[in-house]
Automatic annotation (TrEMBL):
EC annotation from Swiss-Prot or TrEMBL: 4.1.3.4
GO molecular function term, any single one: hydroxymethylglutaryl-CoA lyase activity
Domain of life: Eukaryota
GO biological process: ketone body biosynthetic process; L-leucine catabolic process
Pfam families: HMGL-like (PF00682)
Keywords: Lyase, Metal-binding
InterPro entries for this protein: Aldolase_TIM, HMG_CoA_lyase_AS, HMGL, PYR_CT
Protein known as: hydroxymethylglutaryl-CoA lyase
Swiss-Prot/TrEMBL catalytic activity: (3S)-3-hydroxy-3-methylglutaryl-CoA = acetoacetate + acetyl-CoA
Segments forming domain Pyruvate carboxyltransferase: 76-361
High-level lineage: Eukaryota, Sar, Stramenopiles, Ochrophyta, Bacillariophyta
SUPFAM superfamilies (UniProt xref): Aldolase
Organism: Chaetoceros debilis
């Protein structure tokens, strides 16, 4: 995650930062982060050290979870956003088959809620151009499994496949994939006016008015809607984000009918203290069960922020396999918190999430390759 001394010296000797040097630095950071994560979990993937990992889990589960005074059998829901948020700003556009294969591996690992695609303009997000093919491919796979399985508890049949639909056209495109293909749609607003203008091309109020059409239509189809609030702790264009702005946007999304609101630290500047203060205010407006958290790891604060959120009663966490992704409109922000890291921490705390860590690591290996 940090530039090596030789590369740092090279950059220093270049004098003023040129665009090519800046690109080199970003690429180097990204490659270092992925390789770091890959080899960090190698022992879990290959097996010999897994017994030690399990012993560590048993040790921590008797101590850490008592910080929150919670029962050991408490369940935490992981919303895996890798196939959508993780891949949306990759320069290499993956085939629909590869994306479907990734989701299949995540399902096999125990992920029960996966954000699989985004129905947006391919002009702005080329990586999501094949969303219809991905969703129909997953639906066919799920139907084939249902026909061949005698077990009613087949994980594919109970996994929620969610898609991002930022406007009514995106929603209609998602519904055109066919009945039963999409299990949930998601909409997103920002707590920052500047970010809303850059990302959505309109003000916060205008964006919410557009989302009202999506939520109204979703009721006709019986499709639940998840809401996102971006820039809850910081913005690449504004210095400070008032907590009152976050609460106001979250309340409006709830009023539109969103069953769950995910609070996103889009540029990864939040700290545990900020997390606690933010959630204290939001919980006064929303039921705790409705709130999810979505952290980026720009300053290495994602896990400790999740830890703080768990202490505030939050039981839904967004994360991305292999730490992939981030917002294409938030320059400089690193990827989402890695699902592998989150699962490892939850296991160590004795909290249940239902995800098989070695299989999850294999899914991460697949997409990194």
């Amino acid at each position: 995650r940090i530039l090596s001394s030789s590369v740092a010296l090279f950059l220093k000797n270049q004098g003023p930062r040129t665009s090519i040097i800046h690109i080199y630095e970003i690429q180097y950071r990204a490659m270092s982060a992925m390789n770091f994560r890959r080899y960090r979990f190698l022992s879990i993937r290959t097996g010999p050290c897994f017994g030690h990992t399990r012993r560590s889990i048993q040790y921590f589960s008797t101590s850490t979870s008592s910080v929150f005074n919670v029962k050991k059998n408490i369940k935490v829901k992981i919303v895996e956003v890798g196939p959508r948020d993780g891949l949306q700003n990759e320069t290499k556009v993956l085939s629909p088959r590869t994306k479907v294969h990734l989701v299949q591996k995540l399902v096999e690992a125990g992920c029960k809620h996966i954000e699989t695609a985004s129905f947006v303009s391919p002009k702005w997000v080329p990586a999501m151009a094949s969303s219809s093919e991905v969703m129909t491919g997953l639906h066919e796979w799920r139907l084939n499994r249902a026909r061949g399985e005698n077990d009613k508890n087949d994980p594919a049949s109970s996994t929620v496949f969610s898609v991002l639909t930022p406007n009514i056209k995106g929603f209609e495109d998602a519904m055109n994939c066919g009945k039963g293909v999409v299990d949930e749609v998601a909409i997103f607003a920002a707590a920052s006016e500047s970010f809303s203008q850059k990302n959505l091309g309109c003000s916060i109020d205008s964006s919410i008015e557009k989302f009202a059409k999506v939520t109204e239509k979703s009721k006709e189809y019986g499709i639940p809607v998840r809401g996102y609030v971006s820039c809850v702790m910081g913005c690449p264009y504004e210095e400070n984000i008032e907590v009152s702005n976050v609460v106001r946007v979250a309340e409006r999304l709830m009023e539109l009918g969103c069953h769950e609101i995910s609070l996103g630290d889009t540029i990864g500047v939040g700290t545990p203290e900020q997390t606690i203060q933010l959630l204290a205010e939001v919980k006064m407006a929303l039921d705790t069960e409705m709130i999810a958290v979505h952290f980026h790891d720009t300053y290495g604060q994602a896990l400790v922020n999740i830890y703080a959120a768990l202490g505030e009663g939050i039981r839904t966490i967004d994360s991305s396999v292999a730490g992939l992704g981030g917002c294409p409109y938030a320059a400089g922000a690193s990827g989402n918190v890695a699902t592998e890291d989150v699962v490892y921490m939850l296991n160590g705390m004795g909290l249940e999430c239902g995800i098989d860590l070695p299989k999850l690591v294999q899914a991460g290996e697949f997409i990194l390759d």
